[in-house]
Amino acid sequence: MFLSKLTSIYIVLIILWLLYFSIHSLFASLKFKQLILHAYPWFMPWYRLSFNLLATLLLIPPVVVMFLYPGNLVWEWTGISRYFANTLAILALIGFSWSLRSYDSSEFLGMRQLKEGRQEIKEQESFHLSVFHRYVRHPWYAFSLVLIWTRDMYVSYLISAFLMSLYFILGSHLEEKKLIAFHGDQYRLYRNYVAALIPLPWRILSKEKAAEIVALNTSADSVNTGGGTNV
């Protein structure tokens, strides 16, 4: 009976994560944004803020289930490996915090769009590369993977870690479709030089090359915003 209850909990956990990933991907997609823009243009200034609030709320159920019902210990970091894992986790947190300096927090949270009353899809006006983007194309996903896999693993944690890792891989592909739509050949060129999630010694972008790519003025693929302009 106890084993059956645990199995049911794990199934619920998987469903909650899949539900979160599906809704998150839907609201982040260009097609869905275009649909909302055409149907409810008045809502677009609120879109980013609403998206962030919804993503936060939907994250609570799977996280709560994961911590309330961790299950058996699968593996743990011990001895020197524990210090190594924790060091990597701390460095990932520092890197994540440092990377925030390269972003407009007001834009990311959706406050700028609301304040300016924007009725458009594009959020980032220009192509830029932080220092971490010279090593991987998706630094936040990379830092998150480090944080996830440097923890001790119970059954629920392992299930969650596996699903989140798959979503980061899928999410990086979906995100790049938007980046190509916004930045066209400029992003395609950058993508040729840098790995997606795991730094590779032979695919590290020099500071000079990064500046050269950022300085390029290439035409992006046309994305109809519904507001009479293309971005």
Give keywords.
single chain, 231 residues, mainly alpha, Four Helix Bundle (Hemerythrin (Met), subunit A), two-stranded antiparallel sheet, 66% helix, globular
Question: What does this 3D model show about the protein?
Answer:
The protein has 231 residues and is mainly alpha-helical. It has ten helices and two strands; from the N terminus they run αααβααααβααα. Strands 1-2 form a two-stranded antiparallel ribbon. The protein has helices spanning 2-28, 30-39, 44-68, 79-99, 105-109, 111-116, 139-149, 155-183, 185-193, 207-215; strands at residues 73-75, 153-154. 66% of the residues lie in helices and 2% in strands. It has one domain (2-215): Four Helix Bundle (Hemerythrin (Met), subunit A) (Up-down Bundle).
For the terminal residues, how far apart are their CA atoms?
Answer: 57 Å
Number of domains: 1
Strand order of the largest sheet: 1-2
Q: Extract low-pLDDT stretches.
A: 219-231
Number of strands: 2
Oligomer: single chain
H-E order: HHHEHHHHEHHH
The secondary structure category is mainly alpha
Give the SSE layout:
Layout: H1 2-28, H2 30-39, H3 44-68, E1 73-75, H4 79-99, H5 105-109, H6 111-116, H7 139-149, E2 153-154, H8 155-183, H9 185-193, H10 207-215
Antiparallel strand pairs: 1-2
Helix pairs in contact: 1-3, 1-8, 4-7, 7-8, 8-9
Précis, in short:
With 231 residues, this protein is mostly helical. The protein has 10 helices and 2 strands. It has helices at residues 2-28, 30-39, 44-68, 79-99, 105-109, 111-116, 139-149, 155-183, 185-193, 207-215; strands at residues 73-75, 153-154.
